[in-house]
Amino acid sequence: MDRTFVMVKPDGVQRGIVGEIVSRLELKGLKLVAARFEKLPEARVTEQYKEHLSKPFFPSLKTYIMGGPCFLMVWEGRNVVALVRKVIGATNPQEAAPGTIRGDFGIDIGRNVIHASDSPESAAREIGIHFKPAEVFAYTRIDESVLYEY
Ligand code: UDP
Ligand code: MG
After folding, report:
1. Does residue 61 have its Cβ closer than 6 Å to ligand 1?
2. Does the C-beta of 67 come closer than 6 Å to ligand 1?
3. Does residue 123 sit in helix, strand or coil?
4. Within a domain: residue 21?
5. What's the pTM?
């Protein structure tokens, strides 16, 4: 099954919407397979966002992400990477559709509440930055045929 890396950013944690976000992903039918609450060290923030190292917003992005604890997760499901990107909405909350997490809970691009991997390759890379293989759990939840057509 496909996996993606999702992280509630410090603004989302401070606003008390971790539960709401987890709930939306659970209600969609996705399976939580790893989670950790922590303040990210600089090296992992830089690694996570290395494609943006030369961008003008990188210093403020780093300060933002290191500004408080984050809630890091791995979610599993069919085509989960693209699916979660739809659930979180556009990068800029001003453009994110109502009903998406950023559309419902954010206002500024620099306080957009949540991160999710943008491709299967990024997902594999990002999961590897933040989680050891033994921290990602395979378990049986329900009869998956209530969610998936086989
Ligand atoms: N970001 C920002 N200003 C910008 C573009 C991006 O502060 O002009 C921040 C924002 O927090 C965003 C993150 O950098 O979520 C990573 O940017 P990316 O384009 O990868 O967006 P995402 O994949 O998070 O939708
Ligand atoms: Mg991105």
Report:
1. yes
2. no
3. helix
4. yes
5. 0.98
For residue 36, what is the domain's CATH number?
Answer: 3.30.70.141
Q: Which ligand 1 atom sits nearest the alpha carbon of residue 60?
A: 7
For the Cβ of 112 lying below 6 angstroms from any atom of ligand 1, the answer is yes
The helix-helix angle for 80-88 and 18-28 (nearest 10°) equals 130
Q: Which ligand is nearest to the CA of 85?
A: 1
Q: In the numeric block, which tokens belong to residue 36?
A: 């950790």
Counted domains in the chain: 1
pLDDT in tens, 60-79: 999 999 999 999 999 999 99
User: Is the separation of the CB atoms in 116 and 5 below 8 Å?
Assistant: yes
Residue 93 domain-assigned? yes
70-116 pLDDT per residue, tens? 999 999 999 999 999 999 999 999 999 999 999 999 999 999 999 99
Name the residue range of residue 85's domain: 2-138
**pLDDT average, residue stretch 20-33:** 98
The residue count of the chain comes to 150
